[in-house]
Amino acid sequence: VALERIQALEPKLHSFLCVTAERALEQAQQVDAKIAAGEEISILTGIPIGIKDNLCTKGIPTTCASRILENFVPPYESTVTQKLADAGAVMVGKTNLDEFAMGGSTENSAFKLTANPWDLSRVPGGSSGGSAAAVAAGECVVSLGSDTGGSIRQPASFCGVVGMKPTYGLVSRYGLVAFASSLDQIGPFARTVEDAAILLKAIAGYDSKDSTSLKVEIPDYTANLKPELPKGKLRIGVIKETFGEGLDSQVEEAVNKAIKQLKELGAEIQEISCPRFRYGLPSYYIIAPSEASANLARYDGVKYGYRAPDADNLISMYARTRATGFGTEVKRRIMIGTYTLSAGYYDAYYLKAQKIRTLIKEDFEKAFEKVDVLVCPTAPTTAFKAGEKTSDPLSMYLIDLMTIPANLAGLPGISIPCGFDNNGLPIGLQLISNVLREDQLFQVAYAYE
Ligand code: GLN
């Protein structure tokens, strides 16, 4: 069914960079055989899944939507995709993204533009726009994305699906092509909170191949999913600073209505101030490009990927490969990052950004002394028209205002649909919890859903 839908919808949606139909059918047949033989199967057996194309898949191209990796076929498998394959999930293809996950609309892909299934003239959000659109349109049941500054939660909000960024270190990043290593996390997209909880359980857990991986027990995230919240026991804090200027009035209205509903479900609601929240955006746009400039140094035309032809020496080969292989936004970030890390500017920019990061963490720590879960909009607006922000990178960066702080602090966050605007476009509600309290996020999200 998923493959049929892909065939029917892809000409309009372009969620996938590559569809692995043959391999998927083969796997599906194996699943059928298993079931026929009465073998035990897992909850994910036979479930069609889309994988963001910055996750390495052995023998299947992994391009990061970049010319520089156009012909790259990884010789190894990422931990998350291996875990899903072991659980019997069937990958139907690799989904489109902003080049190297840098962007908020999937328009920075070097290969195609993905449309928002709710309105084809609008963007699906980004950078995991392909994964979000594919789930929203039923081209797969669930999918994986990566979130460095909002790239799972924001497209989930724009496409009307559930998207979740786990605690930093909960899910192994082995085989995820690095953008900003101290911020990157892999997480699930699904149509329901329960499906997202099931998928997270399947991909989470310690991995010796990722040095930042946490050694923790993975709970059953579905255990606490009830239609109501324990009366007066769950304290939810509304982040004051995320309301007001810049927030679309229809988004504000829908989020306020959702907060009221959470109260009716049994939560105790209070207002919380995170005064340093708004400095998250400028500090992120120093830290992320700094790390990216270091991580992307490996694409030099020597080891793998694209190599520019007709260079006459090594230096010009490097230069031409990078000049023609990377897109505009990636080059912009490499330049910003190289600048902010260079001698003389390091203290003024990078170090200062790191200090702000610590202050934002403190804001959250204080907040979690008073409440269990924080709530705010996922994005200040609903999906915008394709092309609307492409000539103005700053306006594109501004959409990340509310998602970035959770990445800077390593906290888990989830976006769930909470209504529609007057154009019929979905609106997202964001919940953020303390480190490793994914269980509480799912609990509140499920009760609301
Ligand atoms: N939009 C943000 C950026 O461009 C976030 C990207 C992400 O989370 N991968 O950096």
From TrEMBL:
GO molecular function: ligase activity
Active site, renumbered: 52, 127, 151
Catalytic activity: L-glutamyl-tRNA(Gln) + L-glutamine + ATP + H2O = L-glutaminyl-tRNA(Gln) + L-glutamate + ADP + phosphate + H(+)
Domain Amidase: 1-441
Family recorded in the similarity comment: Belongs to the amidase family. GatA subfamily.
HAMAP family in the record: GatA
Subunit structure: Heterotrimer of A, B and C subunits.
Protein name according to UniProt: Glutamyl-tRNA(Gln) amidotransferase subunit A
